[in-house]
Structures are given as C-alpha cells and as structure tokens.
Specification:
Length: 372
C-alpha cells in the first residue's frame, strides 16, 4: 500500500518508516522538524518532505493515490509548563484537523493515529472492600506530606491498581494529554462524517534506539540514562513505586504496520482504539535500576520524594484487545529492553533525522505525486 507518514523523521516515526518499507509499502515521508522535538534546525534528509501538517490542505497533492495516512506528527512529552499549551493545541489539535480536511479533499479514507496512554489520566483502582473506584486528583498538600497513593473515598484504605482497557473513560491531566484526547475526537468525527475508518494506537511509555536525549519533551528512560552518562544519580520522583508499562520502539513500529493493514478492513464510519504496551508493568524505580544495571557504571538511583503537578500515580495497560484484534504482542520484555537501552544510540543534540535509508528514499520519491 501507499502510506503517507507524518512525523517520519521522529523517534517513533523513523522506526515506523523503516518497518513499513521492509514490509513492502510505499512511503511518502513528511515532517516539519520542530525544534522542541529535533533540538534545533536540522538539514532535511533526502527523500523527506519538510512540510507542516497544519498546512496540509496546501500540499494535498501528496495525498493523491495514498491508501492510508499514518499520523505520527505531534509535540510530545510533559513539556515545560502551561505556557506550552498553545504549541500543543497548534501542532496536535489544529495539525490533525487540517490533515483530516486534506485527506477528505484527496479522497483518502483510512487513518492510523498515534495516540497515547495519557488520555486515561489516572489508571484503574480498586478497594479490597468497596470495589472499583475513580479517585480524584491528588492535592499538592497531600503530596507534600509524602502520601502518594490514592485512598478509597469511602473507607480511606489504600487503593490497588488494575490494568486499563480501551473503554476506560478519558481523563487528561496535562496539555499533551488534552491534545491527544482532541486528536482522537477529531478522528472519530472525521470517520463518521467523511466517512472514513480510523485506528488510534495508544502508546504507553516508548523507549529504544533513536530516542531523544534529556529534554522536557523526552521520556523518563532517556532522562535516567542522561543522568548516568553525566555521572549523576538518576532522580526518581515520589517513592518510585508508581507503575507504568514500557514498550520498545520496534514493537511500536510493528503495531503500526499491523494497524495499516487492519484499518483497510475496518468499516467506514468506525474508529477503534488499541493499547500498545508490553503487558509487563514495571515501577519507575525499577526502570531506573534496570537502565543503571545496563550501564554498569555510575551511582545508584535516588528516590527524592519530589513530585510534579499533573503526574498520575499508576497507569498500566491491558494488552488483550490489541492481541485479539490486531494480532499484536510485544516481543521485547522490559527486563531485557531497558538494560539494552543503556547502550542504545540516542538522537544527537543537533539532529540529522534518521529515515529508513536508501529504500525509504527510493520509495518516497516513487510514491510522491508531482506537485506540478
């Protein structure tokens, strides 16, 4: 199939581009190379269109003959503070809306959207006596006292976590999370009105080769690794027991390839969401320990007790629907993957973004329609 891939020069996008090409798809690669993601102005890789999804109607000609759009382009991560709100809304919300309008104009009816587990906010919790509970956000006063776990609103006992499935209600707790919810809503409206079909892949904590180094828009695994490389102890917030799911980037790329094929069989007017996760929950302290063990040198992680506004306590995914309907199951266990990550090549500080090499460049040139 011919696939237009946005965010094709990014951490996840470049891995998706390579795997799509290996599987024999024609890739039209698009990326605007925003500095928040690419850390400065980089040269445009051969075969990549340096274009902004917010202007997608203007480059609609590239969508002619495309079977599926795989939309990875986004501002990601926790960001700096709420002053990042306009950037998230512009790149993620407006960019997705403009892309969907351009797809409709070009007659493209299939979408694979990169979403995130952040749409869930807090995960699922249960009280041993009163069953499932939806806790309120943790107050700054409670966090300052070092009380990080949620308590049952009825009896005050500590709540235990449970895996979230794709029917869990949205509850965004950050600028990035709000923008991801908006992207899924836009995709759902487009699917019904165009009509089209859409698959939203809710990535959990992605790590692996090509990950950006320590920036406010990077992931915690890269932050831990950067600390070790600088001879500092990796700082673990709260008590380190907060639970997450970490999934290796090659598995995320494979989930996208499966979704590109599956969305062609999804009825028009439908949207379907899938967790993309390893299925093996791990605490943040254990993430730091595994990266440190892989590095083999440097100080042990330090649990600081510090906390950030908007952080959630636990969010762990159920992999069942993706396994059952997409045939996706992660192949890299966090025990091995996080240790290997300690020596994986990271994205340089001044980025020359990775593409899928000669195969991608050749396929991209062949796939693109002459703008004239």
């Amino acid at each position: 199939m011919r696939v237009l891939l946005t965010g094709a020069a990014g951490f996840i996008g470049s891995a998706v581009a390579e795997m799509l090409c290996v599987e024999g798809h024609d890739v039209v690669a698009v990326d605007v190379l925003i500095p928040e993601v690419h850390d400065g102005v980089a040269p445009v890789p051969e075969g990549l269109y340096r274009l902004d999804v917010r202007d997608a109607v203007e480059w609609q000609h590239l969508l002619r003959g495309v079977d599926v759009v795989c939309h990875q382009a986004a501002m990601v991560g926790a960001g700096v503070d709420v002053r990042d709100l306009p950037a998230y809304a512009s790149h993620n919300d407006l960019g997705t809306a403009a892309l969907l309008a351009a797809m409709t104009g070009a007659g493209v009816r299939r979408l694979v959207l990169a979403s995130s587990m952040v749409v869930y906010g807090e995960g699922r919790y249960a009280c041993p006596e009163h069953g499932e509970q939806r806790p309120r956000p943790r107050s700054p006063q409670v966090l300052e006292r070092g009380e990080f776990d949620h308590a049952c609103p009825r009896c005050g006992r500590r709540l235990s976590w449970a895996a979230v499935d794709e029917d869990t209600p949205f509850d965004p707790r950050s600028s990035y999370a709000a923008s991801k919810v908006a992207q899924e809503h836009y995709a759902g409206v487009w699917a019904r009105q165009a009509p089209g079909s859409a698959i939203a892949l809710r990535y959990h904590n992605v790590y692996g080769p090509g990950m950006p180094r320590d920036t406010p828009y990077s992931g915690v695994a890269a932050i831990f690794r950067s600390a070790l490389e600088a001879g500092r102890s990796p700082e673990v917030f709260e008590d380190g027991r907060q639970m997450r799911d970490f999934v290796e980037v090659a598995d995320v790329a494979r989930a996208n390839v499966l979704a590109v094929s599956a969305v062609a069989d999804l009825p028009l007017g439908w949207q379907r969401a899938y967790n993309v996760c390893s299925g093996h929950p791990v605490s943040i302290l254990d993430v730091a320990r595994r990266v440190a063990a892989g590095a083999g040198t440097g100080p042990d992680p330090t649990v600081s007790g510090r906390h950030r506004p908007g952080d959630v306590r636990h969010v762990v995914a159920s992999p069942d629907r993706a396994r059952r309907e997409l045939g996706f199951e992660a192949t890299v266990h966090p025990d091995e993957g996080l240790r290997a990550f300690a020596h994986a090549p990271l994205r340089p500080r001044v980025t020359s973004p990775t593409t899928a090499g000669a195969a991608l460049r050749a396929r991209t040139r062949a796939a693109a329609t002459d703008p004239a």
